Amino acid sequence: MADDSVVTIERQGHVATLWLDRPEARNAMGPAFWEQLPSAMNELSADDQVRAVVVAARGPHFSVGLDLKAVGEMIPTPGRADGGDGSGPSMAARANAARAGILRMQRSVTSVADCPKPVIAAVHGYCLGGGVDVISACDIRLASADAVFSVRETRIAIVADLGSLQRLPGIIGRGHVAELAYTGKDIDAERARAIGLVNDVLPDAASVQAAARAMAAEIAANSPLAVQGTKAVLRAGEGKTVAEGLDYVATWNAGFLQSEDLTEAFSAFVAKRQPEFRGR
């Protein structure tokens, strides 16, 4: 990526690490981030050599959330309204532009959730506001002991609008979401683990990133067809009955049980060796 990239990609075998790479700004999310994140995720989604993705961050913090100075330019305020003299866009026009900007940022975060490969967040330091939106779109979350999480939009007079309020109820439950979102409070890594926001807590940034890569490598060693199929079936089952979910997975497996990976799995079992899956 270009030298001005705020999101960078590092590949190691079948695992890719997507780095939030604006450490000098504590990985605040400005206009470049919202453009580069979906581009990077689309690249990783289309790369057949990538079987699992880790989202991590350079510097002392995962992300302090929105770059408020940059994003504030798109928010209509009375001081920037037309004033009725026809000299500028109306409040309605400004509101429409703000909505378009919000939808663009929502699509950026959704690119993480839409990745067909498992995505693991490795969080250290501050993970605030938009940072929580991003990790909520991941499949698995790990944290360092110094991690701090906050759905803090109410503290700056905003309703969280990039996915936390929609995705977190399925991760930590509605009661915990309500507490975090209404109060805007900070919670530490142990509270995050207790409520199910993160799967595990590691001692520091280096260890949480190493743990995330190790988990991604463990996932990548399995059949990519089966792993991505499992992710697709889990997602398709959201909001559905058990019967509907079972019907869906029956149809899915009917199409994929003829894979070469399945033949390799049986051959490896008989030969008492590790399978070498090729994703076909």
Can you offer a commentary on this structure?
The chain has 280 residues and is an alpha/beta fold. 46% of the residues lie in helices and 14% in strands. It folds into two domains: 7-220, 2-enoyl-CoA Hydratase, Chain A, domain 1 (Alpha-Beta Complex); 224-271, Orthogonal Bundle (Lyase 2-enoyl-coa Hydratase, Chain  A, domain 2), CATH 1.10.12. It is built from twelve helices and nine strands.
Q: Helical amount among residues, as a percent range?
A: 40-55%
Number of domains: 2
Poorly predicted runs: none
Number of strands: 9
The name CATH uses for the topology of the largest domain is 2-enoyl-CoA Hydratase, Chain A, domain 1
Mean pLDDT: 90
* Helix and strand pattern: EEHEHHEEHEEHHHEHEHHHH
Radius of gyration: 21 Å
Helix- and strand-based class?
Answer: alpha/beta
Beta-strand residue fraction: 5-15%
CATH superfamily of the largest domain: 2-enoyl-CoA Hydratase, Chain A, domain 1
Q: Largest sheet, if any?
A: 6 strands, mixed
CATH architecture name of the largest domain = Alpha-Beta Complex
Give the CATH level 1 class of the largest domain: Alpha Beta
What is the first-to-last residue Cα distance?
30 Å
